[in-house]
Amino acid sequence: MPLSSSSAFSQDGRRMGRFAHGVLLLVAGAAQALSLAWPWARGQGDGLLSLIGGYGRPLWWLQILSLAVLARALQTAQRPAQAAGRAMLFATAWLVATFWWLFISMHVYGGLPAPLAVAAVLALAAFLGSYYAVAAWGWQRLRPAGAAGGALLFSAVWLLAELARGWLWTGFPWGAGGYAHVEGPLSVLPRWIGVYGTGAVASWLAYWLAALPGISRNGARVRAARPLAAAVALVLAWGGLWWLRDAAINAPSAERPALSVAMLQGNIPQDEKFEAGSGIPLALGWYGRELRAATAQLVVAPETAVPLLPQQLPEEYLDLLREPYLKKDGRQAALLGIPLGSEEAGYTNSVVGWQPGQIQDYQYDKHHLVPFGEFIPPLFRWFTQMMNIPLGDFNRGALGQPSMAWAGERLSPNICYEDLFGEELGAHFGNAATAPTVLVNFSNIGWFGDSVAIDQHLAISRMRALEFERPMLRATNTGATVAIDHRGVVTHALVPYERTVLQASVQGREALTPFARWVHAAGLVPLCLAALAVLVVAWIRRRKPSVRGL
């Protein structure tokens, strides 16, 4: 065979190999998204199908397995740019498959042309994916010779990328890998190191899983004893974590009966919610009737359950709702989502609370606002003007607003995706005597249709319950309306997209977890410093080849 023909075959083979490699990374990235909330019904049968827990459930093993595919791709990369490109493919596929439902809000409800909505989702995923590309580039540049050092460095750069995604430009850490571990052996870790620390441990495990075939950086076979020892150590650690799961249980708040709760799910169609001829009268009528008819000790109505400002409501509407809850001898309290403010003072996305003997309403104003929905980022007004969505520039509420005390519990509201930012919820946990005993989320996920966004948000709330060991009540317009206990377990739930009321009970917790203590004192700085310390050590060792690798 002529030399030129042999060279052509070789080039074709390399191109096919690169193509297959790229496809594998795209599939693995999509699997990373699926691990956060499985979007299909439970598989029927035994074996591998039995590992799939059902629609909306997180799959911790799939998160580690899919991330191991990326780790393996980085281990075989020859150049930093190649490593960055592989991570970019993986991360972009992962993020597109995670928050593809943004297309629904922009196109279906916002009227943005479909090609532009698709482009916007892709652009956001690629932008956020670049954080992981930079992390992979840095890992390849600083990579130690030893597998242990490589695993530690991979965990550190992955952690930094996740922290950057959760902080820069107000942060959008939706779908962080740690959320897949609200179930499984790593679910014991959030009370100590939070979702980001848990994700870092998962990335460390993924790296070791990728290294088990025994291929080191230079391609030589590692002695068989090493991967065998690593596998045994991982199995032992896994079993230890499972054993510790029930040791993380927090004692109830004093000796008192559980609090009865009614959570209202109005299922107001999103395309009618702010329409004067349909959604508004439907919401005012249904929520008004249910608030007056409820018998539970605590009644919770979701974000913007009342979709009008108080001054826009029919005369005495709020007074009629409030009156039963203000009776001095009453035994009921209510929390209601409603916008507040005026053109002069500015507007807030708020929750008001009513309870016996309290003339002054309790008020919580949303602190972490949604870009493009509740405030318009600089230079992007042109984009929001292309959509037909009721947007506004809301005022930001203070961080660490007080809880509402009721029936021996301290109820701490958070609105919409505020529960995505555990470090901000941590501002409430400085003192066990004043810290919330129950967290309450008010949401309207109707913007994203009947999609997996509902289940992803549920996993986020479950993670907050694990981190702080506090029960979480979720009242939503379309789902998931649920009660979650302090172990992150859903105890009561409504079927999404039904107009009904969830009757539940909740018992608060008072002790502070280690995570609550350090995140209140220092935010996420300790995690950032720990990751940076690993990078500094790797850089020093890289500059001194004579020093033995990690």
From TrEMBL:
PROSITE patterns: CN_HYDROLASE. It is a multi-pass membrane protein. Keywords: Acyltransferase, Cell membrane, Lipoprotein, Membrane, Transferase, Transmembrane, Transmembrane helix. GO terms for molecular function: N-acyltransferase activity. Pathway: Protein modification; lipoprotein biosynthesis (N-acyl transfer). GO terms for cellular component: plasma membrane. The keyword DNA-binding does not apply. InterPro entries: Apolipo_AcylTrfase, C-N_Hydrolase, C-N_Hydrolase_sf, LNT_N. Residues 264-508 form the CN hydrolase domain. The chain crosses the membrane at residues 59-75, 87-110, 116-139, 151-172, 192-212, 224-244, 518-540. Its EC number is 2.3.1.269. GO terms for biological process: lipoprotein biosynthetic process. Its main location: membrane. It is found in: Cell membrane. HAMAP family: Lnt. Catalyzes the phospholipid dependent N-acylation of the N-terminal cysteine of apolipoprotein, the last step in lipoprotein maturation. Belongs to the CN hydrolase family. Apolipoprotein N-acyltransferase subfamily. This is Apolipoprotein N-acyltransferase. It comes from Delftia acidovorans (Pseudomonas acidovorans).
